[in-house]
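Support request from a user on the community tier.

User writes: "When I paste my structure tokens into the form, the page sometimes reloads and wipes my input. The last time it worked, I copied everything first. Here is what I submitted, just in case something in the input itself triggers the reload:"
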């Protein structure tokens, strides 16, 4: 395998260069400006200071970056686009607040924030007509904002709701509404169809229906789910066509694919670590663990961790479920290390260096690319102490994981079983305290992606430098990923 490492490095570089060329081409000719409206960070995309304005809003745990496929395409088509980070999300320093279960709580605050962005959009020189586009959580927000604008005699011209669920939709409001769902979002597809059938009971997916000034349509993006719909070229095209009809606007361009190029760039960065890892200082090989001890080390923490923590857990960090995750991972990892009879010790300089390389590659190189093209990965100052606190849980957990899996050398059934045990333990915690910990379930896809991407990089480093280097490096990466992903929240 050693002789293939230079070839892998060259392929990684070529993949990254090709992807960067395509991704940067999508920005060519645009004026992209970052600004603030109150405390809300906003990015203005435009080819020229004219054209209708589209306000773009992201979903829960999202950011402006994850909406770029729509923002860039609409800006290239001649619209001006204002994309913003909701309170508690992305680079917005102000936490979410209020009662998340009440319409007049958190929802009302986010609607008010959206309407401030709409007001700013109308204050821009030139065409002051406004359209709204939002994903997931934001669909309910933009629909309620559009209704409030009508009540203030300032109606928006069109709404595009992606992966929509909102109880605020009525037979005549919003008047110009397109609902886009991914093919694999069966529940949300039904919600979109129900909205169209309020206007015409015979409405079908893909058809435009109308009654008087009200116009509705539902569109299904093929082969995608809740996140993939944000990178679907056909979905972006449908949104652009809807705005073109609503504004009687002729688009200058058609959307170009971005999702596969983002994936190519991130794949290239991951592959780039493979030849680099071979040059790290060699470390000890993690010993094989007897099957009986391995099973005890995954099953006992699985059962005990939620039983020990959920009865006494109280919020103490200003990020949704970050405090519980820190405690859960710390106890889970500590139990595993104790059962494996692996005790804390000072790592060698070589192991520390290798852990630092893994952390820098996973956070700075991979993370900065992710931040520019796909999702927020840079923390606000308020999040830095949260990341530090999360390290108290993520490092013990990843250390235990690296030893359990022999830094990736263990049979695949052991690697899968070790990760599934952690998932099962988190699910058990959510079931024990559903009112407080349901949001823990949202973390599971993040963990799955982390093990798929960073876990692979950790495996390469661990096989060369040892389990301690992989465990510490992955622990730092996981703390960072969790700390920047989930919303800041200040309870009412």
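"...and here is what came back when it finally went through:"
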């Amino acid at each position: 395998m050693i002789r293939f490492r230079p070839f892998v490095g060259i392929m990684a570089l070529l993949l990254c260069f090709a992807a960067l060329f395509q991704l940067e081409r999508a920005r060519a000719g645009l004026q992209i400006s970052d600004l603030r409206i109150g405390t809300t960070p906003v990015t203005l995309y435009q080819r020229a200071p004219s054209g209708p304005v589209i306000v773009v809003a992201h979903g829960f745990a999202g950011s402006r970056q994850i909406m770029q496929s729509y923002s860039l395409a609409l800006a290239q088509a001649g619209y001006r686009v204002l994309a913003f980070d909701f309170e508690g999300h992305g680079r917005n320093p102000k936490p979410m607040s209020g009662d998340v279960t009440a319409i007049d709580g958190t929802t009302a605050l986010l609607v008010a924030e959206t309407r401030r962005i709409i007001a700013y959009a109308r204050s821009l020189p030139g065409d002051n007509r406004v359209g709204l586009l939002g994903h997931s959580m934001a669909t309910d927000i933009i629909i309620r904002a559009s209704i409030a604008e009508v009540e203030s005699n300032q109606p928006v011209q069109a709404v595009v709701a992606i992966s929509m669920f909102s109880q605020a939709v009525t037979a005549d409001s919003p008047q110009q509404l397109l609902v886009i769902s991914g093919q694999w979002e069966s529940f949300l597809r039904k919600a979109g169809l129900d909205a169209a059938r309020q206007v015409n009971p015979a409405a079908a997916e893909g058809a435009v229906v109308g009654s008087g000034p009200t116009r509705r349509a539902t569109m299904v993006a093929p082969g995608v789910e809740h996140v993939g719909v944000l990178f679907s070229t056909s979905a972006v095209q449908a949104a652009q066509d809807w705005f073109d009809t609503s504004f009687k606007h002729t688009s200058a361009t058609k959307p170009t694919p971005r999702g596969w190029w983002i994936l190519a760039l991130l794949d290239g960065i991951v592959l780039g670590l493979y030849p680099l890892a071979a040059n790290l200082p060699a470390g000890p090989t993690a010993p094989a663990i007897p099957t009986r001890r391995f099973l005890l080390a995954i099953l006992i923490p699985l059962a005990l961790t939620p039983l020990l923590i959920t009865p006494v857990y109280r919020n103490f960090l200003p990020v949704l479920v970050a405090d519980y995750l820190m405690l859960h991972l710390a106890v889970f990892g500590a139990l595993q290390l104790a059962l494996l009879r692996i005790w804390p010790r000072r790592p060698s300089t070589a192991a520390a260096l290798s852990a630092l390389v893994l952390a820098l590659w996973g956070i700075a190189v991979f993370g900065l690319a992710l931040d520019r093209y796909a999702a927020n990965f840079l923390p606000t100052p308020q999040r830095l102490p949260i990341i530090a606190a999360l390290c108290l849980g993520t490092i013990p957990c990843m250390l235990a994981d690296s030893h359990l899996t022999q830094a990736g050398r263990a049979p695949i059934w052991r690697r899968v079983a070790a990760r599934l045990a952690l998932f099962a333990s988190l699910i058990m915690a959510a079931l024990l305290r559903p009112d407080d910990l349901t949001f823990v379930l949202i973390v599971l896809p993040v963990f799955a992606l982390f093990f798929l991407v960073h876990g692979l990089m950790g495996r390469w480093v661990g096989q060369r430098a040892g389990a301690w280097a992989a465990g510490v490096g992955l622990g730092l990466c996981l703390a960072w990923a969790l700390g920047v992903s989930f919303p800041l929240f200040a309870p009412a």
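Agent notes: The reload is a front-end session timeout and is unrelated to the input. The chain is about 55% helix and 10% strand. The chain has a mean pLDDT of 93. Escalated to web team.
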